[in-house]
Amino acid sequence: MNETAAVKATPTLPDAQTVTEVKHYTDRLFSFRCTRPASLRFRSGEFVMIGLMGDPDPKTGKQKPLLRAYSIASPSWDEELEFYSIKVQDGPLTSKLQHIQPGDQIILRPKPVGTLVHDALLPGKRLWFFATGTGFAPFASLLREPQTYEDYDEVIITHTCREVGELTYGAELIESIRNDDMLAELIGEGFADKIKYYPTTTREESPKMGRITDLMRSGEVFSDLGVAPLSPETDRAMVCGNLAFNLDIKALLEGYGLEEGANSKPAQYVVEKAFLD
Ligand code: A2P
Q: Whose CA is nearest to atom 1 of ligand 1?
């Protein structure tokens, strides 16, 4: 067999990466880690397209990649990549992706983009991360990024989910950050004292219940955390959640006098839609 025939006989996935770890949190949520292409450079908070090969076309037998945008949940310095995903039983991609195991291959297009990056914000004193559901993912990256603590005195992360089990990924991540000696060496001793974590649920009993938007309107979040309401002079915000949430938070942030920024025009807050299948 000549070389060309050998290549044709062994089809490989384009941009394939190998899954190294999978963790399931609830019947709706899981996270996984995979190898990182040596050439992939990204800014913490950005997303890439990832996926699997789709089913063969019934007529041609050809398979096409099935790709979706996923925030990279690992920080830019990590040698592997981490993703946090919803599982939708009849979702085109996540109905398959939820079954991946270590050793399996996924497709990853190495073209990172996104607005939840430090470059899109003007300097400030306090940084707010507002997340619902899997919208926590880009903040899992930014919470492990040294620049977050170099640029801000305080980092406040709010995470609203329907049920308590959906907070586990975020809660475990915050806990691991607080106990990570390697991270303390990289970022600076005591860096984790800057983090204020504010998890809330809306459909299951937990210590703090309610949508974060309602808790901001009532002022409860500020009194609970012992901080002043947001102001354009001191506060910067990043938002990642479902569409309705993003729109509501945007209106609230504008009400506090913050303006939306972008990579090309840094300002006081930035927004991105969380991945939904
Ligand atoms: P709720 O249970 O009151 O709808 P989802 O799983 O549907 O993406 O929702 C994740 C979390 O975001 C839920 O706790 C949900 O609350 C909350 N949420 C949904 N829409 C909004 C919104 N417009 N403003 C604030 N929170 C929202």
A: 202
End residue of a domain, out of 112, 129, 155: 112
Are 92 and 189 contained in the same domain?
no
Domain co-membership, 95 together with 213: no
Compute the distance from residue 274 Cα to the ligand 1 centre, in Å.
12
Quick: pLDDT tens for 25-45.
999 999 999 999 999 999 999
CA distance 76 to 42: 6
Of the candidates 130, 116, 134, the one whose C-alpha atom is nearest the C-alpha of residue 198 is 130
Q: How many domains does the chain have?
A: 2
Do 150 and 33 belong together in one domain? no
Nearest residue to 271 via CA among 111, 69, 130, 119 = 130
Q: For the residues of 87-115, what is the DSSP string, one character each?
A: --TT-TTHHHHTT--TT-EEEEEEEEE-S
CA-nearest residue for atom 16, ligand 1, is 202
> Which range of residues forms the domain containing residue 215?
118-271
Distance 242 CA to ligand 1 centre (A): 7
Q: Ligand 1, from 212, 221, 242: best to mutate by most atoms within 8 Å of Cβ?
A: 242
Residues 108 and 197 grouped into a single domain: no
pLDDT tens, position by position, 204-263: 999 999 999 999 999 999 999 999 999 999 999 999 999 999 999 999 999 999 999 999
Cα 177 versus chain centre, distance: 16
CA atoms of 60 and 149, how far apart (whole Å): 53
| Backbone φ and ψ of 53, nearest 5° | -75, 140
